[in-house]
Amino acid sequence: TFSYIMQRKVKYWLIAILFITLATRLILAFTTPNFTYESYFHLRQVEQITTTGLPLYEDSLSYSGRELIFLPGFHYFTALFDLFLPLELAAKIIPNILLSLLVIIIFLISKKITNNDTAAFLSASITGFLPILYHTNSFTPESLFLPLVFLTIYAFMNIKEKKYLTIYIFSFLALSLISSATVLLLIGFGIYLLLSLLEGKKTSKSEGELIIFSVFFFIWIQFLFYKNTFLTEGVSFIWQNVPKQIIQLYFPTLPVLQAIVLVSVIPFLAGIYVVYQSLFELKGQKAFLLISFAISTTLLTWFRLIQFRLSLAFFGLILAILFASFYKDLLTYLQKIKATKIKKHVLPIIIILLLLTMIFPAISTSLKQNTPTDEQITAFQWLEENTIEKYGVVALLEEGHLITYYGKRKNLMDDQFHLIKNTEKRFQNLNSLFVTKFETQALGILEEYNIKYIILTPKAKAKYDIKKLGYYSGKCFDKIYDQETRIYLVECVLGEI
After folding, report:
1. Are 135 and 35 in contact (CB under 8 A)?
2. Per-residue pLDDT tens for 119-143?
3. CA distances for 247 relative to 244, 402, 420, 497, angstroms
4. I need a labelling partner for 126 at 20 to 30 A (CA). Which of 371, 393, 482, 497 fits?
5. Residue 455: what are its φ and ψ, rounded to 5°?
6. Phi first, then psi: what are they for 486, rounded to 5°?
7. Which ranges of 129-264 does DSSP label H, i.e. alpha helix?
8. Residues 449, 422 contacting (CB under 8 angstroms)
């Protein structure tokens, strides 16, 4: 029948978009040889789970020995693939497959809202090339979190069907064990209930019960994992105990124009239109739900409760879905004014505009990822065989995980700040080791943290605008590795000078 043929065509086109997206992502991922700096923390945890069955909650290397607190759902999930694939290969392939699956999930949500295949295809295509998602070498929980959170949203929209209730429960349970950013889903639900109440739109009893269950379960899980962190850090727990000097870097706010490019200009403008129409002209309940998530993401980002890149990715995906509503409304309007000739050209014009505004920024985002070079990796690997195990190593904050993952040595600092006392002082001391010109100051800091090795990478040279350590002398510091990256051995103690 005609309906069956149409359904088959829809499947073929959707599979085509999925494979084009995945192929593009994998080509870009393997073009860049290494992972983003934060990825090495997660790689180390997966290795630990594969070896022992448990995450590394007592870490003898991070901060020269500390307790780690994090949600292990992502690490257990990817450890399954580490059983039959080399970890660094799995770490490139699996996250890109997961993020490519967003194409299907966003298509289903868009189809649910508009009941228009073409509109849903456009949303899926936008998702496939959304620039903010093209951190193709990032091995982080966000790669599993984003598909799951939108699967949860789709299941919630179909909650009257029993199978979707089951999908919702399992996906929400998984989310609660993957990322604390699941709170944006709960706040979105709260805003959805509030907006529905203000506009006199009824919500079903099952929706309310499910939201209440979700809130209590999420709080319980977070309490199980983070109770010690909350008791130790108090309110600063919310901001992950990030040192005040770098909280602006850890929760950055990009220039407005750059942020718009990362979520794509066309979906952004279309999203503004749909939000206006929905809030002020009382459109459907489903659009209300999506707008509620956009508001919750904006609020959490404003108060620096979730990292900016994750919030922008979530916001960009919401805009991709809302674009389907915009496209459908545009066709309805053109039909209303009987602009038949214009209507015929709308789809090709939109496709050309999307290609022009998305393809280049997506590729550019991937090629500009913040990753270490092969030369730097070699230097950190050199540490394991050529340095004394009991002494610490200092490098940039973001390079701390390279010390523990490749060098198997203690670091001064990395970006896991929970349960660490005096992070501001420690970060100030780390900076001083690169910028001070006074040998006595440097030796005092190095002795305080039992550090014998300093790594000066090209990245550190560029950050501090230096060519060598200002206090370097042949008397107290020996250059034991001299390539683009340099490694210094400390040979003096403060009392001997």
Report:
1. no
2. 999 999 999 999 989 999 999 999 9
3. 5, 22, 15, 37
4. 371
5. -105, 125
6. -115, 145
7. 142-157, 162-176, 183-198, 205-233, 247-250, 256-263
8. no
Average pLDDT of the residues of the chain = 87
pTM: 0.91
Distance in angstroms (rounded) separating the CA atoms of residues 314 and 263: 9
Residue 336: phi, psi to the nearest 5?
-65, -40
Distance between CA atoms of residues 129 and 298, nearest Å: 22
With CA atoms as reference, report the closest residue to 70 among 92, 98, 100, 48.
48
Q: Which distant-in-sequence residues (6+ apart) come within 8 Å of 224 by Cβ? A: none
Residue type at 86 in one-letter notation:
P
**Residue whose C-alpha is closest to residue 324's, from 122, 146, 492:** 122
The type of residue at 397 is: L
Tell whether the model's pLDDT for residue 221 goes beyond 70: yes
For residues 486 and 454, what is the distance between their CA atoms, to the nearest angstrom? 8
Number of helical H runs and strand E runs in the chain: 21, 7
Cβ pair 192, 289 in contact under 8 A: yes
d(CA 209, CA 165): 12
Percent of the chain at pLDDT above 70?
A: 88
One-letter amino acid of 196? S
Between β-strands 486-490 and 451-456, what pairing exists: parallel, antiparallel or unpaired?
Answer: antiparallel
> Phi and psi dihedrals of 476, rounded to 5?
-105, -10
As a whole number, mean pLDDT of residues 382-398 equals 94
pLDDT given at position 418? 82
pLDDT for 266-277, tens place per residue? 777 777 777 666
Q: Where are the alpha helices (H) located in 303-399, listed in sequence order? A: 308-336, 340-367, 374-386
pLDDT band at 241 (very low <50, low <70, confident <90, very high): low
Task: Classify burial at 126, counting beta carbons within 10 Å of its beta carbon; exposed 0-12, middle 13-18, buried 19 or more.
Answer: buried
Asked whether 309 and 141 are in contact (CB, 8 A), the reply is no
CA distance 471 to 436: 7
For tokens 């620096």, the residue is: 304
Single-letter amino acid code for the residue at 194: L
pLDDT digits (tens, 9 = 90+) for 283-323: 555 677 888 888 888 777 776 677 778 888 898 899 889 88
Q: Tell me the two tokens of residue 60.
A: 């003898």
Number of neighbouring beta carbons within 10 Å of residue 350: 19
| Residue 461, both tokens | 């040279």
Q: Within a 10 A sphere around the Cβ of 238, how many other Cβ atoms?
A: 13
* Sequence-distant (≥ 6) Cβ neighbours of residue 21 within 8 angstroms: 100, 103, 127, 128, 129
Cβ pair 492, 443 in contact under 8 A: yes
